[in-house]
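Researcher: Please predict.
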Amino acid sequence: MTLPPRRPAPHAPVDSVGDEGDSEDQDLRRQLLKDELEAAPHFPPPWSRSALAEPLGERDDDHAWLLIYVDLLTLVLVLFVILLAYTTVDAESHLKLVDSLAVELGYPRQETIVPPIVEAIPPAPSPGKAERLARDLTESLAESGGLEDVEVLTTPGQVELRMREGILFASGRAELLGEGVALLGRLAPIFGPEVARVTVEGHTDNVPIATDRFPSNWELSVARATVVVRQLISEGVAPERLQATGFADTQPVADNDTPQGRAQNRRVSLVLQMAPDGLPEP
């Protein structure tokens, strides 16, 4: 029996479309590689010497260091703020924390008692002191006949003796007359320990004076007050209780338009400040 001849197996169809796609991809890769190789000399890598030699003005990252520097400063500032917040402790919060820890540990709560601040105000001098001193001065002046030239005035806490010019000084002069020395000698012993301070005030009228020694009434009034202070010191009054000042014609007690008024304004006043009650007297 004769077998029929074997037919050859059919060949698988060839995918012409896939082969063509692979060929096109390979051609595209070759073209891209060729373009890169041709452009490489114009764009050197950043680590190459040509890139390092490029001027800073032509680079895109020439200000990148500034951003890093600003970030660093910001971090340092934040660090300081955090440290300040941890080191600054409110006193009240600290006390509360200590108090709460003491309670937790079983210690009794302690309360801080702040005593009230009381300002020490010296007591005012007793009104009777000034009146008693004024009475003693008036009696002494009455016995010596000096009430015509001395006026005794009383205000709360002080006594003022207004002595007219004629009993102490000659016109335009600053040397004590004999009557003035005797008057101050009688008054000084009465300034007892109840007198804290004696202020000697020199006053003049508004008539100008112009001499070599006294260019104006200011110099004359100060000189007269100073002379009286020195005489009181010689009579035994403590220097630390005395002070001298001159007012010229700035504090008149009468009208300067009349001779009588000007005579009243030419004066020396002794202002006796009484010592406050309850304080040691000088």
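Model: The mean pLDDT is 78.
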